[in-house]
Design brief:
The complex is a heterodimer of chains A (533) and B (195). Chain A has 533 residues and is α/β, with parallel strands linked by helices. Chain A has 20 helices and 20 strands. Chain A folds into 3 domains: 219 residues, Thiamin diphosphate (ThDP)-binding fold, Pyr/PP domains (Rossmann fold, 3-Layer(aba) Sandwich); 103 residues, Rossmann fold (3-Layer(aba) Sandwich), CATH 3.40.50; 168 residues, Thiamin diphosphate (ThDP)-binding fold, Pyr/PP domains (Rossmann fold, 3-Layer(aba) Sandwich), CATH 3.40.50.970. Chain A has a 6-stranded mixed sheet, with helices on both faces. Chain A has a 5-stranded mixed sheet with strand order 8-10-9-12-13, with helices on both faces. A 5-stranded parallel sheet of chain A has the order 14-15-16-20-19, sandwiched between helices. Chain A is globular and about 75 Å long. Chain B has 195 residues and is an alpha/beta fold. Chain B has a 6-stranded mixed sheet. In chain B, helix 2 links the parallel strand 4 and strand 5. Chains A and B meet through strand 7, helix 11 and helix 14 of A and helix 1, strand 2, helix 2, strand 5 and helix 3 of B.
């Protein structure tokens, strides 16, 4: 059988193409980015007009996917875990309205925060919206579940969540494809009330969602993704969710002596868990993310302490799982032949040499140094967050996409004299525009630096919807044109930049400074691409 | 047959192109493989690694357990040392000797050498100089891969075929450069192996 070597992300993308999607909607975010990129570079997407352009943010992505589903076509929406917060409004309401064309909602979680500001577990969102969740343990399963997810979605008339984590998203393995399915034809819901969530309709829809729970439960009980393997040693029963199953089996190459239930489809199958609780002395839950399953089975009090896992202390409460952590939970020894020598030092990421953000931070630091504690700089999410680290040490905050501007505004409201926001071009159009409008509305004295490298650089150089339009957007939002200052951040423009920043931070209203120079990596890639063509 | 490899380096050095060649060679021999990569923030000059697992049996974990790696393959010496605890007692360490200094407190050469002193099974070589000799410093990755080839349990001809395939679209001269770099790395490892 012909196996394709695919990242977990790419396996999801290939499955969606094969399942006949008419569009993917997404905003780039590690570890989800490669799903959409794979579709963007697929011949079939070009030939068959599968939508694949980036969205401005996760909320617009989810809404557009719902629009496509409204027309009876299959759509996929992909994002990193914190993106689910941004999409939460349409996401939560999508289970009330339901769908027409199959809708797969892919949430890529990042336990251990390799490239994120928290490690929230998207399964809680799936449960919150009361929709099925699929959680693969391998690249093949990522493919199979994504393919199946669209069918399940159409069968139930609800969106389905596919939850993956960094390790699977960014690991490659062989994947066997299934048969290609044609795209759906355009058709609408038979119920004209379905998508109009006025209270009178929404109450009916919610009852429908509640009634669907029984069917979802029955499907989980019978699902081939929930696999029970009996074991001879009943001192423990193991419940392993998603890729945690791999770490379990890595430690028992000859087969696990305990009964094992592998979970790939939620809601949790009740019957088999009830039987394990009866027959096993203890249940150990292995799950990547928060202790969702452990808490559900153990309940608030976990009387008799029968259920163990992250909450009970059998496994660390935070961070990603790996074979060593799971070995320790079973009291198995790891054999170390060598120790990591003390001479090894941490090597944190840093802004690239030659990056325009560096010149921007040098100028900003020089401009505000004389103000000491009277000035604070609010950062945002992107490469430029690295401005917090030495040698710049330029940032005092970084909360979420767009928060730089609104936190600076709140700080100015609180009496901070020099409130500065640093935000990237893509992050600005993702979530900074409404923040800026708040500041314009009240004429708050803040200075916003939109450090523009013309791409979403941290995630690999994706297009930024605001490219070439930032000045017009700011002016349109009401920033006075004479306080929108565009610059080229270079060593030779340092003095000019310092002067402009000083002028604007002393202006008692909203100023926007736009240092603009293309990301050096994107520039290099473009040159290489044009040389090869 | 199984081989577990940790590839290590600094973001931007290009450890993933080494993984791509090994992966393709393994797949063309009908073997199972899993290869995890680091994407995202660390790629900006931070420490990066890739766990590459090849086997004739199905592979469970994407990550290699402590003490189980057969090979640590590094484009940077301090990054090689970072993963020593993953190396098995019989495992080999193959590393570039030239430091990539992008942190202010990078250890001096003497302390770095001391870190390697306990290791008996190792090949340390200046991949950049050898690559330059082969024709271009851009082939440094393939020198390192060549140096690792005697420990890979894969047919050398399959590695060559993978290099031809992966670099093929860049033209015959690029293919030849990388094949030359590969064989020069292999020759050095074989010398170490003999002595």
């Amino acid at each position: 059988m012909n196996r394709l070597l695919l990242l977990g992300d790419e396996a999801v993308a290939q499955a969606a193409i094969d399942a006949g999607i008419s569009g993917v909607y997404a905003y780039p975010g590690t570890p989800s980015t490669e799903i959409t990129e794979y579709i963007q570079s697929s011949d079939k997407a070009q030939k068959e007009n599968i939508h694949h352009a980036w969205s401005a943010n996760e909320k617009t992505a989810m809404e557009a996917a719902m629009g496509m589903s409204f027309c009876g076509k299959r759509s996929m929406v992909c994002m990193k875990h914190v993106g689910v917060n941004v999409a939460a409004d349409p996401f939560m309401n999508s289970s009330i309205s339901g769908i027409v064309g199959g809708l797969l909602f892919v949430a890529a979680d990042d336990p251990s925060m390799h490239s994120s500001q928290n490690e929230q577990d998207s399964r809680f969102y799936g449960r919150f919206a009361m929709i099925p969740i699929l959680e693969p343990s391998s690249q093949q399963e990522a493919y199979d579940m994504a393919y199946f997810g669209f069918e399940l979605s159409e069968q139930l008339g609800l969106p389905v969540m596919l939850r993956i984590t960094t390790r699977l998203a960014h690991s490659r393995s062989g994947v066997v494809r299934r048969e290609e399915r044609a795209q759906n034809v355009l058709h609408f819901s038979e119920d004209p009330r379905q998508f109009v969530l006025l209270p009178v309709n929404a109450r009916q829809r919610y009852k429908k969602l509640l009634a669907a729970q029984q069917e979802m439960q029955a499907l989980s009980e019978a699902s081939s993704f929930n696999v029970f393997t009996p074991g001879r040693d009943l001192s423990k029963g193991i419940i392993a969710c998603g890729i945690a199953y791999n770490y379990l089996m890595e430690n028992f190459p000859g087969g696990c002596p305990y009964p094992v239930l592998r979970i790939g489809q939620y809601p949790l199958p009740k019957a088999v868990i009830a039987e394990m609780l009866q027959t096993c002395e203890q249940l150990m839950v292995l799950e990547e993310g928060y202790p969702l399953v452990e808490e559900m089975i153990g309940g608030l009090l976990n009387q008799g302490n029968k259920v163990t896992g992250r909450l009970s202390g059998s496994l660390p409460r935070d961070g990603e799982r790996n074979p060593d952590i799971v070995a320790a939970a079973f009291g198995l020894k790891t054999n170390k032949s060598y120790e990591k020598p003390e001479v090894v030092l941490p090597r944190p990421p840093a802004l690239c040499q030659g990056c325009g953000h560096r010149d921007m931070y040098d100028a900003l630091n020089a401009a505000i140094s004389e103000y000491g504690d009277r000035a604070r700089v609010f950062g945002d999410i992107g490469c430029y967050t690295l401005g917090y680290l030495p040698p710049f040490r330029a940032l005092h905050a970084c909360l979420d996409m767009g928060a730089s501007i609104t936190m600076a505004k709140g700080a100015a409201d609180a009496g901070l004299e020099y409130a500065v926001a640093v935000i990237g071009d893509s992050t600005f159009t993702h979530s900074g525009m409404t923040s800026l409008l708040d500041a314009v509305y009240e004429q708050t004295a803040i200075t916003v630096i939109i450090s523009d490298n013309e791409v979403a650089a941290m995630t690999g150089g994706q297009d930024s919807p605001g490219s070439g339009r930032l000045e017009a957007i700011c002016a349109g939002l009401g920033v006075e044109p004479e306080h929108i200052r565009s610059l080229v951040p270079l060593k030779k423009t340092h003095d000019e930049m310092v002067k402009v920043i000083k002028e604007e931070i002393n202006y008692p209203g909203v100023s926007v400074i736009i240092p603009r120079r293309a990301c050096i990596h994107t520039l290099k890639r473009k040159k290489t691409a044009s040389n090869e063509n | 047959m199984k081989i577990d490899i940790i590839l290590a380096g600094v973001g931007g050095q290009g450890i993933l192109s080494i993984a791509a060649v090994i992966g393709e060679a393994a797949l063309s021999q009908g073997l199972y493989m899993k290869q995890s990569e680091v994407h995202g923030m660390s790629q900006r000059g931070g420490d990066v690694q890739s766990n590459l697992r090849i086997s004739d049996q199905a592979i469970h974990s994407d990550l290699i357990p402590t003490g189980k790696a057969d090979l640590v393959l590094a484009l940077e010496p301090m990054e090689a040392l970072r993963y020593l605890s993953y190396l098995s007692a019989e495992g080999w360490l193959v590393s570039n000797s030239v430091p990539y200094v992008n942190i202010p407190n990078y250890p001096d050469q003497e302390r770095l050498d001391a870190g390697f002193s306990e290791m008996k099974r190792k090949v340390i070589l200046d991949v950049e100089s050898i690559a330059r000799e082969a024709g271009s410093v851009r082939a440094a990755n393939m020198v390192l891969l060549g140096a690792a080839s005697p420990f890979l349990k894969l047919d050398y001809s399959e590695l060559e075929a993978a290099v031809r395939h992966i670099f093929g679209r860049k033209g015959e001269s690029v293919v030849e450069l990388n094949l030359k770099a590969l064989s020069m790395g292999k020759a050095i490892a074989e010398q170490v192996f003999k002595s």
